């Protein structure tokens, strides 16, 4: 049997891939890539192919989720197949499922890790990574209804003093990428009915745009101000705060231009 290697592309553009990732891709019999689990706004497929010196077969959500990645597995059974993935390869459960399928069929697997938006946005904010609770995705509304799961997760994390990392929905096929404004408005809509003071106009939150690029934007402020703040183009990410350490408060003021009274929230 052959081998399937998951290679992380990192963040923003093709220049984020590691040297190990480039080396592995160049030595592959066939290279695949998916771009639907995350947005890499600066990535150019022709430049990526020139970098790894291979033709890249772009696969869809349908290929991986409905057809169980059979195109990739067929290639891996014959030789070495590489799957290029935005960020770090196994953050998305889809890729974990594919790895399990490969191993169960006798195909060896390994991972070449890449930078992840999880560590990137936490690092940019200055918050401490061990103080984050469960993360959640804010989805686009369906038929006018707004999913309440993100609101509940933020509430649960706040109860135990933990921060919440919120990813914003992406629909590559429709070329839709949720903005911070849309994500905040969805949560404010839920607040109107739940009324638990989880996400109000006075809530302090952190918005981050284009983590991993040369021009990331990091801004901490009250929700009513973040809604109208110009973060520029996606991808956007949102953080809601739990209990703050004094150093976290200083980091938010210095790195994210949070209001000076943020110090008063620190324990």
Helix content: 25-40%
Average pLDDT, rounded to a whole number, is 93
Rg, nearest Å: 20 Å
Number of discrete domains: 2
Give the CATH level 1 class of the largest domain.
Alpha Beta
- Total number of β-strand segments? 12
| Distance, first to last CA | 56 Å
Task: Enumerate how many helices there are, as a single number.
Answer: 10
Write down the CATH topology of the largest domain: Methyltransferase, Cobalt-precorrin-4 Transmethylase, Domain 2
User: How would you sum up the major sheet?
Assistant: 5 strands, parallel
Describe this protein's structure.
The protein starts with a strand and ends in an 11-residue tail after the last helix. Strand 10 (204-209) and strand 11 form a beta hairpin. With 267 residues, the chain is of the alpha/beta class. It folds into 2 domains: 3-112, Cobalt-precorrin-4 Transmethylase, domain 1 (3-Layer(aba) Sandwich), CATH 3.40.1010; 117-265, Tetrapyrrole methylase, C-terminal domain (Methyltransferase, Cobalt-precorrin-4 Transmethylase, Domain 2, 2-Layer Sandwich). The chain has helices at 19-26, 45-52, 61-66, 70-78, 93-104, 117-125, 149-159, 180-194, 223-226, 246-256, and strands at 3-8, 30-34, 56-59, 80-85, 108-112, 136-138, 164-168, 170-171, 176-177, 204-209, 217-222, 236-240.
């Amino acid at each position: 049997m052959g081998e399937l290697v998951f290679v992380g592309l990192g963040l923003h553009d093709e220049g984020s891939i590691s040297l190990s990732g480039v080396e592995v891709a160049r030595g592959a019999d066939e290279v695949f890539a998916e771009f639907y689990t995350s947005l890499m706004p600066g990535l150019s497929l022709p430049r990526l192919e020139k970098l790894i010196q291979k033709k890249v077969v772009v696969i869809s959500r349908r290929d991986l989720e409905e057809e169980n990645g059979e195109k990739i597995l067929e290639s891996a059974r014959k030789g070495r197949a590489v799957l290029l993935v935005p960020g770090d390869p196994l953050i998305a459960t889809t890729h974990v499922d594919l790895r399990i399928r490969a191993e169960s069929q006798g195909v060896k697997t390994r991972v070449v890790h890449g930078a992840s938006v999880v560590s990137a946005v936490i690092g940019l904010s200055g918050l401490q990574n061990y103080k984050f609770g469960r993360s959640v995705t804010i989805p686009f509304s369906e038929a006018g209804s707004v999913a309440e799961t993100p609101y509940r997760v933020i509430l649960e994390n706040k109860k135990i003093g933990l921060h919440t990392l919120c990813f914003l929905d992406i629909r590559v096929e429709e070329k839709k990428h949720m903005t911070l404004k849309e994500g905040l408005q969805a949560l404010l809509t839920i607040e109107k009915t739940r009324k638990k003071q989880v996400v109000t106009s006075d809530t302090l939150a952190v918005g981050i745009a284009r983590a991993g690029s040369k021009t990331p934007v990091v801004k901490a402020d009250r929700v009513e101000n973040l809604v109208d703040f110009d973060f520029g183009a996606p991808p956007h990410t949102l953080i809601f705060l739990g209990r703050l350490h004094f150093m976290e408060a200083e980091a938010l003021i210095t790195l994210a231009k949070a209001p000076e009274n943020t110090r008063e929230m620190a324990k």
